[in-house]
Predict the structure of Leucine-rich repeat protein 1 isoform X4.
Amino acid sequence: MRLHCEVEVVSRHLPALGLRNRGKGVRAVLSLCQQAPRTPPGPRAGGERGGRHPACLFISTLKDKRGTRYELKENIEQFFTKFVDEGKATVRLKEPPVDICLSKDSIWLSYHSFPSLSRFGYCKNL
């Protein structure tokens, strides 16, 4: 799934350090994808064999074309979707401690894709 929108990544460490965020999002492409395997298929850690590769959130901007990848497996702390009708949503990650703020007029069309992550086991306490 790809979503063209304004994205702002806010570190939750900034207020504790006495710093402030820029407060402005940038135009980006947000992709929901699976990570490519780093090793050939076979036994994995914990005795798990084969299986699906972990899903990740990939944010690519014009300035950073290689993008930033955030793993999603049991890493999503909370979804903030109160203003999804206004085209705004936020995904709070556990590690790294960041909030990914999304804004777009038609984000509600893709709104149903993000909550489905909890059904597939990518976050526990939702």
